[in-house]
């Protein structure tokens, strides 16, 4: 019985480390706080026409006020059409510091923000996925030719790629074959 507990405990620790359960805020986890990533049926559309080169990746902050990159940057052309990634209601369209920003809220306490975007929609407008919501503007932390996309779930920033791409499911394998386990599978 003792021989079976060690591998089970090791597997549990591995799962905890992979899922980031050790984070007190969940900020560094790739799984959105308060729930799982959306299913494929809920997947969003990219806010720009293909291709979708990510020029700067999401980097979760260690705490709500720490440094990080709270979204992804996509290569874009000035005045390129920006599309609504999902259905929702425009909750903000205006200037923040030195750049035009647009936010869309959807059920489930999810807010998507794109910048710099010169909006063609107004606060309160309902938008559908794929609808033109503006054009790539200028200003902000992105160099010209860049669109920043951020996503907040229940107030915490999460990687937009959780919504835009189907991420592969993690498959856990034993670290070493157990002498008492049946000899089958690829680790024979």
Mean pLDDT: 78
Q: Output the structural class.
A: alpha+beta
Named CATH architecture of the domain at 40-164 = Distorted Sandwich
Number of helices: 2
Percent strand: 25-35%
Distance N to C terminus? 22 Å
Radius of gyration, Cα only, in angstroms?
21 Å
Main CATH class of the domain at 40-164: Mainly Beta
**CATH homologous superfamily caption of the domain at 40-164:** Glucose Permease (Domain IIA)
| Main sheet properties | 8 strands, antiparallel
Please report the total strand number as a whole number. Answer: 11
As a percent range, the share of helical residues equals: 10-25%
Instruction: Give the CA-based shape.
Output: globular
Spans where pLDDT lies below 50 across 5 or more residues: 1-35
The helix/strand series, from N terminus to C terminus, equals: HEEEEEEEEEEEH
Protein name: M23 family metallopeptidase
GO molecular function: metalloendopeptidase activity
Keywords: Signal
Signal peptide: 1-21
Please name the defining characteristics of this protein.
single chain, 188 residues, alpha+beta, Glucose Permease (Domain IIA), 8-stranded antiparallel β-sheet, 3-stranded antiparallel β-sheet, 2 helices, 12% helix, 29% strand
Structure, explained:
The chain has 188 residues and is an alpha+beta fold. It has a domain at 40-164: Glucose Permease (Domain IIA) (Distorted Sandwich), CATH 2.70.70.10. 12% of the residues lie in helices and 29% in strands. The chain contains 2 helices and 11 strands; from the N terminus they run H-E-E-E-E-E-E-E-E-E-E-E-H. It has helices at 2-19, 161-164; strands at 54-56, 72-75, 81-83, 88-96, 99-106, 110-115, 117-119, 126-127, 132-136, 146-153, 156-158. Strands 1, 2, 4, 5, 6, 8, 10 and 11 form an 8-stranded antiparallel sheet that branches. The protein has a 3-stranded antiparallel sheet with strand order 3-9-7, with no helix packed on it. A hairpin with a 2-residue loop joins strand 4 and strand 5 (99-106). It is globular, with a radius of gyration of 21 Å. The protein starts with a helix and ends in a 24-residue tail after the last helix. The relative contact order is 0.21. It comes from Cryobacterium glaciale. Keywords: Signal. One of its GO terms (molecular function) is metalloendopeptidase activity. Residues 1-21 form the signal peptide. InterPro entries: Cell_wall_metabolism_enzyme, Dup_hybrid_motif, M23ase_b-sheet_dom.
């Amino acid at each position: 019985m003792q021989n079976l507990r060690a591998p089970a405990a090791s597997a549990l620790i591995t799962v905890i480390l992979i899922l980031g359960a050790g984070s007190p805020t969940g900020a560094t986890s790739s799984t959105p706080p308060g729930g799982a990533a959306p299913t494929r049926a809920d997947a969003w559309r990219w806010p720009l026409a293909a291709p979708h080169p990510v020029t700067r990746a999401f980097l979760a902050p260690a705490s709500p006020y720490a440094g990080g990159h709270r979204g992804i940057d996509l290569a874009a052309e000035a005045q390129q059409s920006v599309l609504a990634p999902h259905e929702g209601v425009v909750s903000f369209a205006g200037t923040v510091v030195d750049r035009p920003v647009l936010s869309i809220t959807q059920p489930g306490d999810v807010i998507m923000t794109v910048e710099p975007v010169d909006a063609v929609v107004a606060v309160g407008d309902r938008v559908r996925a794929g609808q033109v919501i503006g054009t790539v503007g200028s200003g902000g932390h992105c160099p010209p030719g860049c669109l920043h996309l951020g996503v907040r779930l229940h107030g915490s920033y999460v990687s937009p790629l959780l919504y835009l791409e189907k991420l592969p499911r993690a498959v856990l394998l034993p670290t070493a074959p157990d002498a008492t386990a049946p000899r089958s599978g690829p680790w024979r």
